[in-house]
Amino acid sequence: MTPTPVGLALSMMNRLAANPMLDRLGLRQSLERTAYHGTRAGFRTLAYAGREFKRVNNWLPRKQLPNRIPEDLFDLSLTDDQQMITDMLRRLAEDRIRPAASDADEAGEISETVTAATSELGLGLYAVPEAFGGVAEHQSPVTSVLIAEQLAWGDMGIATALLSPFSVAQAITRWGTGEQQSRYLPAFCDDAPPIATIAIDEPMPLFDPNRLQTTASETATGYTLNGLKSSVVLGARADLLLIAAELHGRPRLFIVEAGVTGLQTKPDPGMGLRASAPVQLRLDNVELSPDALLGDDDFNYEAFLDCGSLLRCGLAIGTSQAVLDYVIPYCNEREAFGEPISHRQSVAFMISNLAIETDSMRMLTWRAASRLEQGLSTHRETSLARLLCNEKAMEIGTNGVQLLGGHGFVKEHPVERWYRDLRSISTLSGGLHA
């Protein structure tokens, strides 16, 4: 096998690390650390270089997941499969995600341990039809919201990163052409699924996702994209991107593979969601083939935004529940003037409001997701759920910090991180004013 430049560099570094002179000079520890990070980066580079989505000649016909049969009653009970998924993800959130959340927030990336643990779950399988290697039998927005809730209970930043490929797979499943589904969906069912993300937000005041500054121009060979995107989750590492741009006066989505000419990224750190490694994405005359346009004329951008809103509502509910679960024992154990502070009426009322608002967010979101799952009109219900979550998520984060007093301000307690993450619900993707 012909050695690659990365392989030669790593081989030389490993030989140097084995030299006994390093012990005499006291350089072994620092060089071993360099070798470790170099090896890790090298294998990541090779993995990205080897990721290729080949065009399919004998592609399968387009597969659209059916809706559930409408029911007469709004049933809040979970199915056996949903209960199993919920229990499994809650254990993952408690055992793996939450202990790693603080370090992920500081480092601005998810640890390999968490990535390995979550990849074993195969979230992409729940978004892909059986014909392409998945296990999805029908549209399941309720299950998607439940997944978002449980992951966000562990940490919203990590949950946002984990749900990004899941959301891309869902969009291609729902609106992709037969060729696009055959080309991309099987990869999401592999043992090492692609890193995928969606780019909608743009760095401008009062951003409206329905009025995009990023433009797509039709050319003789396909399309050309120009514009600037912000807060793109995992954008620097993504193998596949869904980029929103205005085409012929209306928003559309384009499938863009990593490595195309004219695609540049730079870090875009914010006050929250730091673990999701957001970046700014600049598109400078990015040329795409005609089949890069997601879907056909039946593509519904409003429905696409509604699906994203429901997932963000799920993230807000999960994080709000985490705040509530944390402040109750804290206020019962924290004493002032000889008694627990929860005995104070003002504190008790504030905690009660947290519970009421969290359940209100959950009920509206579940109702909207249930209607979407049954193929019923859902834009009104989704808008109400999004508005309530936008407002109450900020309030719950603020009151969570307030209930801890000075402890709510320091990083020793996770509430300050949850406060920062919850602010993203009301600011990204149009926020309160969209």
Report on the structure:
It holds the Pfam family Acyl-CoA_dh_N. Belongs to the acyl-CoA dehydrogenase family. Residues 79-190 form the Acyl-CoA dehydrogenase/oxidase N-terminal domain. This protein is an alpha+beta fold and 434 residues long. It contains twelve helices and nine strands. Strands 2-3-7-6 form a four-stranded antiparallel sheet, with no helix packed on it. A three-stranded mixed sheet has the order 1-4-5, with helices on one face. It is globular and about 75 Å long.
Range of helix content: 40-55%
What are the secondary-structure elements, in order, as H or E?
HHHHHHHHEEEEEEEHEEHHH
Q: What is the gyration radius calculated from CA atoms?
A: 23 Å
Mass-distribution shape: globular
Poorly predicted residue ranges: 1-8, 35-50
The count of DSSP E runs of length 2 or more, i.e. the number of strands, is 9
Mean pLDDT across all residues, rounded?
A: 87
CA(first)-CA(last) distance: 55 Å
What is the topology?
Elements: H1 5-17, H2 21-25, H3 28-50, H4 80-107, H5 112-119, H6 141-154, H7 156-175, H8 178-184, E1 196-199, E2 215-219, E3 222-232, E4 240-247, E5 250-257, E6 263-267, E7 279-288, H9 301-333, E8 335-336, E9 339-340, H10 345-373, H11 379-404, H12 415-423
Parallel strand pairs: 1-4
Antiparallel strand pairs: 2-3, 3-7, 4-5, 6-7, 8-9
Helix pairs in contact: 1-3, 4-5, 4-6, 6-7, 6-9, 7-9, 9-10, 9-11, 9-12, 10-11, 11-12
